Amino acid sequence: MEKRIQIAIDGPAGAGKSTIAKIVAENLSFTYIDTGAMYRAVTHKAMQQNIKLDDAAALESMLRSTNITLKPSSKGQLIFVDNVDVSDAIRSNEVTANVSQVAAHANIREILVAMQQQLAANGGVVMDGRDIATHVLKDAELKIFMSASVEERARRRFADNESRGIKSSIERLREEISLRDKLDSEREASPLIQAEDALFLDTTELTINAAANAILKLAKEKM
Ligand code: DC
User: Fold this and answer.
1) Domain 6-222 in CATH 3.40.50.300
2) 3-state DSSP call for residue 77?
3) For ligand 1, atom 8, which residue shows the shortest CA distance?
């Protein structure tokens, strides 16, 4: 019987993680878990409640009384906060601009990481984020660090926004992506870095299918 392994995919915003992870999960009949959506959900709720995003204690007390659930659907992973579907709301420019600040709090990370570990405990998961291989799933059988040039990542976010009806400018996206890269990789709590045992995959010149196939091939070897 094939082993239901854990696949960890890390990398900066716009590297193609979620699109590719979803295809890999679907092919293997695994569960796809988008951990960025969890940090976004916390940010979204805090903004709605006018909680200061630099107030780690207030954020923690909000999070402790918040119910976050992930549900797979034909459209990919849906995320519910206190039983309300916030899957689209968490993609707004406002949440995107503020999420790095929330994700930098060690106490918030600790709570979300525990949830992520529980979700992955039985294997059969493809989980993407920034610290999955280095921290959340240190024993994952397959670890991928995915990246692409800032230029290409800005182009992808632009197209993604267009398809969601969100207006944006490539120039601004490039600046936002560079800033988020900096915040995510220079923060003290679980910064974005490639795990020693992770394989580097540059998707700048790869099609989505080529990248997914490369990971599927590696996954099948491990299974
Ligand atoms: O992948 P994304 O753009 O949806 O992630 C949103 C933010 O959450 C991103 O700025 C970094 C943070 N994040 C994190 O710190 N750790 C994770 N495992 C996933 C996301």
Assistant:
1) yes
2) strand
3) 36
